[in-house]
Amino acid sequence: MRIAVIGIGLIGGSVALAARERLGATVSGHDCSASALARARERGALDRACDSLADALSEADAAFVSVPVGRLPELVGEVLRHAPEHCVVTDVGSTKRAVMAAHDDPRFVGGHPLAGAETAGVEHARADLFEGATWYLTPSPTTSGLHYERMFRLVRGFGAQPTAIDAQTHDRILASVSHLPHVFANVLVSLAAGTLAAGGERLPAVGPSFRDATRVAGAPSAVWTDIYLSNRDALSAEIDETLARLTAFRQLLASGDAARVTAWNDAAAADRRRVLESQLAGGPLFELRASVPNRPGVIAQLALELGRCGVNITDMALYPAADMSEGVVALWVSGADAARRAEELVAGLGFPVARA
148 with 109: CB under 8 angstroms? Predict the structure, then answer.
């Protein structure tokens, strides 16, 4: 397996280390920064540090593009132009609509690992960064099923949990659970600093709730400016909803109604439990086998529809017919209820399906 990594920072370097250490892959890398390439070689992340995209991609079976999201649409296009016909190409950007809209190449599968750290740079890269992490995959209707399966298996090989999601839903969810918290963290630290400056006071000891809530404040602007701007419509909608909820709570405080304040706080506790419980999957694995025609987008359709219904594919395999006119998709799903829902959904899409 030959893997190319374009952009060797924290995520790109961790992809390279995971590919070498976990998959035994040969990894070539390219970065516009010569010092980043040198540090990657020192860390043992690369077999080859390449001066050009063409060199890094010349024999690649898979390519990971790991640069700020503002550069992704153009750079993914360059990578697709240089990559071999069999090479699957993905990105790791935390917003997906722009890059997905720019490319309809069947080799391209959008991606976003929910992993990272407050630190940046290849010097902080780790082979285990993706262990247990959700790795969103955003295939398009033109994505090749064979290329999607290959990327699914690569991500699993890194220790991550691949989950299919459409680009629009991805960006809306990430605005709520990732981008908005970064905005909050920045606002909170600026508010605290302004309060201290106005009072001429020294910084007091702060409690764990302030430290936890502001852990991501001031994350690297080289990454986050592009994220804010590329998802500004979804993020603006979340900010508007937040302002409305803060205003409602301010009115509740003004009323002095202790019972209603208690109910508000208890409702938040229940919401948190529900959110956390929705992320837990367990139970035995069930294998489903679906017969599907060999047409563009059929694997993406299956994966995305299951994802929308909250069914996560634990593993998958494709078994094409000899004449490549059709094939069987094997899906492994965790939990009896999820397997039942998956079976009903696949059948509802018109594909013959059975439990193996």
Answer: yes
